[in-house]
Amino acid sequence: MTSPRGLLSASLTALQEFTSSQASLRIIQTISHSNTAPPGPPSTIFVLDSSFNPPTQAHLRLASSALRSQSASPTNRINRPTTTRLLLLLATQNADKAPKPAAFEQRLTMMSLLAQDILDVVPQDSEVAIDIGLTKLPYFVGKAKAIAENAAYSVSGKEEPVRQVHLVGFDTLIRILDTKYYPPEHTLEPLGELFKWHALRVMFRPDDGWGGKGEQGRYVEELRSGGREHEGGKREWAERIEMVEGSRDGEEAVSSTKAREAAERGDRTLVGELCTRAVAEWITSEGLYVESQ
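^ thats the sequence. predicted structure below, dont judge the formating
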């Protein structure tokens, strides 16, 4: 694997080239167990779209649990090798967050380190490839469309797109189903195409200001029972939303905010608990977040 310092240099170059291009989405790196190019379009794309500021154990858990569930499915056990891809996607424009305090090239470097950590905990015979991607699109629906149209994921002559499963926390689900992101009508109708072809795998976030599991589960049940129809939300969309375990009962929630705050205080032990080892070591060696405000 390329050294972290080499990853940083490559990340900066890729970022500059992407920023100056007309592309709305670009895959800048692919990492796999075999270090060979994927054989063709995948059957499923897991998408982890985040600010990665920094990547944490929560990102690792969300991604690795999804990949394990895919490799353990009866279909994949019969039809090996699988053609599953994981896309770690960073938006250079975000609908809610300004690009601080870690520079984008630092985040891309940490995403590459996270990708290797993910590969280390998934079955080596699963033939998983992990893509590192950049997008200029701030909104969820636009990103999903750009992914479907990307040459790495499209199938020539096939009308329906490759299935995407977006890996999100409960807080992101709230934003996806918030009408304020869908002007000018401000309804949920633009999500129709997304839920027609794709799905969400949502991690519970109990004890993190979002209520307990029961309350979070009821949020999806409201959609299922027709409680969002007046906003354009469809009952059947709930069938495309899978709620999965996040932190264990009694376990403190992990977040990028907590990791940044720990780094700012110089609490290396806590940073090491909240982030994977390679990411934590990079944060410490680079002095990231120490002077964040």
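The chain is about 40% helix and 15% strand.
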